[in-house]
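Deliverable D4.2, example record:
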Amino acid sequence: MKSLVSIVLVCALGLGAIYAQTDGFSVVTTESARRLSVATHPRQLPDALLQMASGGQDTLLHALRSDGRITVVNFIYTRCLSICLAMGSEYQQMQAALRAKGLAGRIRLLSISFDPADTPEQLERYAQGMHADPGIWQFASVPRAAQRRALLDAFGIVVVPAPLEQFVHNAAYHIVTASGRLARIIDYSEPHSVLDFAAEQARRKSAFIPGAGHS
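Output generated by the structure prediction step:
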């Protein structure tokens, strides 16, 4: 009987520890944890200087505010031979869908390179290879190391150097408001959900702005 009580107690303590570490069994991985965290508590992003593929510079928060659209952000590097190319293909389809649905005035795409070796010229060539329309899909890097680290941390992006000048990194689509708030993280395997959520965010915004949403 004592053994049975001991086993039950150990199981209860174990379940309690799992419950505490997984936010009530809702989270089972670090990746799931960051997505749940943002979904329940959208976070304000830090500012950072962006080096645009066009050659110009701007700060992230100013670029978001001055553009005014909901921005779908992903993180890439131009030498990536795997997931970045797959996400680029999905962005091409999103770009086409934004045109077809008349949403290009409300939603845009932004790919940010975390690789210090990516120059504006390399980003521009990469953008051209992706057939990116600069009015919808833009590319940038973050030249200042401290700001780059802070931005990656805020988004929850982990980058680990790998052989052959590659990087291992987590990947997702990040919905960011014009005020610089990270509103949702959507798995890269669910691109169909990205524009639906981004469009809903855009509709909520336009509901509070007289005459908005007619571009």
